[in-house]
C-alpha cells in the first residue's frame, strides 16, 4: 500500500547497499531530491538504472554510491557531457563504474517486460550496431511465425523504483501528467517503489491523459515540493535551465564537485534543500 | 531551395557557416513531413523549417511529444513547452514501439560525434577499446532505432577530420554498414542517411556504392577544402553544385529563434 512517510524514512526503509535502483523521469519529473537523500544516507554498491542518467546520476556516481550503471544515454541534456560519469568510466574515480549500455528503445522495452511480468521483450533494434558485441543483455531472437530475426532484451526488475509525480491523495493514489516517460512501467516493474510528490491532496481531480497509479501499486509516498528540481513538474514548476548549464562547470573538477556536494547535499536536510 | 516567393539573398559576410548549415538542414525538410527530432542543431533546424517554408511539419521528440509547436527553442527534448503544444503526448515505450518502429515517421534528424564514409554514426566512445575509451560519449539514446526505422535520415555534423573518419570507432547507429546491400541484409527498414549537412557542404550516398560523396558546397567553400576536412578520400559528384545562400528571411527567422 502507498504509505505516506518522510523522504528520509522512505529511503532508509527501501534502499539498501547493493540494491538495483531505478530513478526515472524523462527530463520531466526527475526524482532529484530522492537521489540526494540516497547520497546523504551514504548508500554504496548500487546498480543504478536509468534511461537518461543526467545530473542526479552524475551526482550519485561522483558521490561514490554506484557500482554499476544500466543506461541508454548519459549526458547533460542540451548542454553536453556528464563529467563525473566520464571520470568514473575513464579513470575509476571515485570508484570504478561497470556499465551496461542500451538504446532508449531497448531500455523502454526492458521496463515494459518487467511491468508485464515477462522474462524479456522483443523489438526491431540494435541490428548492425556494435552495442550487440558489448552488451550481453542484447540477443537475437527469431520470430516463430515469420522467421524474422528480431532482438530480445531481458526484463528490468529493479529492487526499488523511484519516480516523482505531481500529487497523491491521502490514501496513497498517485497522479502524474505531461511527459510521463517510463514512470508507470518503472513502478510496476520494481519490487518496491517510492513516489515523491509535489503535494498531497484530499481528492485527486480527474485529469485527461493523466497516469494514475493506484495506492496498492506503490510502497511509499513522500511529499517533497520541488523534489524534481532542476527538472520540473508540469503545473508546478519550470525547468531550471541555468542549473543544467552551471552543472557543466561544477562537475568538470573533482574538488569543485566535492565542495558542491558538501554544501548542497551532505550539509543539508531534505527540508533545507527543497 | 526555399518556398519564399521573393528570396532576398544576404551577402556572404552577413552569415556564419554555422547558420548556413542550420538553414540548409531546415530546407531539407518538406512541409507536412513527420520528423523525429534530436536536440541541438536538428531541433533548431526543424523549428526553423516550421517557421519558414514548412508550417505543417510534424515535430516528434523522443520524450513522447507528437506534433509539438514550441514558440521558443527547447533546451531539452522534454521541455514543458513541447508537451503543452503537442497534438499528443505518449509514453516513451509507446513513442518507440507504436510510432517509430513500424515506419510511421518520414525523417529522422540526427547529430554525430563521428561519422564515416558509409554514414555510420558513433556517439558512444572515441578510441579502439570500448572498455578503456579515450573519450566516453553520452551513448545511443534513441539514435540506433531512429537510424534504422525512419524512412530516411538526415545528419547534421560540423565538418572536421576528427568527426569525418574512414571508419567510426564504434557503430552506435547504422548508416550503410560496410556498403551497398548491408541495410537490406540487416533487415533495416528505412532508406538510411540520404543527406549529411555540414558547415562546408552537403554529402549524399553514391547511388551505386552508398559511399558518401560531396554533392554541394556552401557559397565561398572550395571542394578541396571539404576534402581536406574529411578523413577519407572524399569523392566529388559529377554535378557538384553550390548551395543557395541564406535569404534575409531565413536568417531573420533563425536569429529570432535563438
UniProtKB/TrEMBL annotation, chain A:
Record-stated family: Belongs to the 3-oxoacid CoA-transferase subunit B family.
Protein name per Swiss-Prot or TrEMBL: Glutaconate CoA-transferase subunit A
Species name: Micromonospora pattaloongensis
GO molecular function: CoA-transferase activity
Keywords, comma-separated and alphabetical: Transferase
UniProtKB/TrEMBL annotation, chain B:
Any GO molecular function: CoA-transferase activity
Pfam families linked: CoA_trans
Source domain of life: Bacteria
Xref: Gene3D superfamilies: Glutaconate Coenzyme A-transferase
Record-annotated membrane-spanning stretches: none
Keywords carried by this UniProt record: Transferase
InterPro entries, per the entry: CoA_trans_fam_I, NagB/RpiA_transferase-like
Family (UniProt): Belongs to the 3-oxoacid CoA-transferase subunit B family.
Protein name: Glutaconate CoA-transferase subunit B
Organism lineage string: Bacteria, Bacillati, Actinomycetota, Actinomycetes, Micromonosporales
Amino acid at each position: 500500500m502507498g504509505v505516506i512517510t518522510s523522504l528520509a524514512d522512505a529511503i532508509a526503509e527501501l534502499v539498501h547497499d547493493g540494491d538495483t535502483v531505478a530513478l526515472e523521469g524523462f527530463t520531466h519529473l526527475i526524482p532529484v531530491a530522492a537521489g540526494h537523500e540516497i547520497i546523504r544516507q551514504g548508500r554504496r554498491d548500487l546498480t543504478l538504472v536509468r534511461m537518461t542518467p543526467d545530473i542526479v546520476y552524475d551526482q550519485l556516481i561522483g558521490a561514490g554510491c554506484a557500482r554499476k550503471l544500466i543506461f541508454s544515454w548519459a549526458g547533460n541534456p542540451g548542454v553536453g557531457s556528464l563529467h563525473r560519469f566520464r571520470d568514473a568510466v575513464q579513470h575509476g574515480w571515485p570508484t570504478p563504474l561497470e556499465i551496461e549500455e542500451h538504446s532508449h528503445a531497448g531500455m523502454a522495452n526492458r521496463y515494459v517486460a518487467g511491468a508485464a511480468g515477462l522474462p524479456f521483450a522483443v523489438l526491431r533494434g540494435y541490428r548492425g550496431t556494435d552495442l550487440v558485441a558489448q552488451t550481453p543483455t542484447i540477443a537475437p531472437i527469431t520470430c516463430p511465425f515469420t522467421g524474422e530475426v528480431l532482438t530480445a532484451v531481458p526484463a528490468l526488475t529493479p529492487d526499488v523504483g523511484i519516480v516523482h509525480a505531481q500529487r497523491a491523495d491521502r490514501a496513497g493514489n498517485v497522479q502524474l501528467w505531461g511527459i510521463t516517460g517510463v514512470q508507470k512501467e518503472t513502478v510496476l516493474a520494481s519490487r518496491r517503489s517510492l513516489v515523491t510528490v509535489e503535494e498531497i491532496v484530499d481528492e485527486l481531480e480527474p485529469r485527461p491523459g493523466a497516469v494514475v497509479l493506484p495506492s496498492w501499486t506503490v510502497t511509499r509516498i513522500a511529499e517533497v515540493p520541488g523534489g524534481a528540481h532542476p527538472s520540473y513538474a508540469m503545473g508546478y514548476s519550470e525547468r531550471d535551465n541555468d542549473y543544467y548549464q552551471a552543472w557543466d562547470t561544477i562537475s568538470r573538477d573533482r574538488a569543485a564537485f566535492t565542495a558542491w556536494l558538501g554544501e548542497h547535499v551532505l550539509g543539508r536536510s531534505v527540508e533545507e534543500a527543497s | 531551395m526555399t518556398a519564399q516567393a521573393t528570396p532576398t539573398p544576404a551577402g556572404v559576410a552577413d552569415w556564419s557557416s554555422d547558420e548556413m548549415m542550420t538553414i540548409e538542414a531546415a530546407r531539407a525538410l518538406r512541409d507536412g513531413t513527420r520528423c523525429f527530432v534530436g536536440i541541438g542543431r536538428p531541433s533548431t533546424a526543424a523549428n526553423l523549417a516550421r517557421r519558414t517554408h514548412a508550417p505543417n511539419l510534424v515535430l516528434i521528440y523522443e520524450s513522447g511529444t507528437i506534433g509539438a509547436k514550441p514558440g521558443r527553442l527547447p533546451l531539452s527534448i522534454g521541455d514543458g513547452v513541447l508537451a503543452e503544444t503537442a497534438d499528443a503526448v505518449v509514453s516513451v515505450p509507446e513513442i518507440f514501439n507504436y510510432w517509430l518502429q513500424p515506419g510511421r515517421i518520414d525523417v529522422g534528424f540526427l547529430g554525430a560525434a563521428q561519422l564515416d564514409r558509409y554514414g555510420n554514426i558513433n556517439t558512444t566512445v572515441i578510441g579502439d577499446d570500448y572498455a578503456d575509451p579515450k573519450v566516453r560519449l553520452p551513448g545511443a539514446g534513441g539514435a540506433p532505432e531512429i537510424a534504422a526505422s525512419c524512412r530516411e535520415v538526415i545528419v547534421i555534423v560540423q565538418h572536421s577530420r576528427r568527426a569525418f573518419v574512414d571508419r567510426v570507432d564504434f557503430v552506435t547507429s547504422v548508416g550503410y554498414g560496410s556498403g551497398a546491400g548491408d541495410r537490406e541484409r540487416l533487415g533495416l527498414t528505412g532508406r538510411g542517411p540520404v543527406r549529411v549537412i555540414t558547415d562546408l557542404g552537403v554529402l549524399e550516398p553514391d547511388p551505386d556504392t552508398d559511399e558518401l560523396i560531396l554533392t554541394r558546397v556552401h557559397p565561398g567553400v572550395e571542394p578541396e577544402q571539404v576534402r581536406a576536412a574529411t578523413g577519407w578520400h572524399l569523392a566529388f559528384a559529377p554535378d557538384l553544385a553550390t548551395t543557395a545562400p541564406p535569404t534575409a528571411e531565413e536568417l531573420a527567422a533563425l536569429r529570432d529563434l535563438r
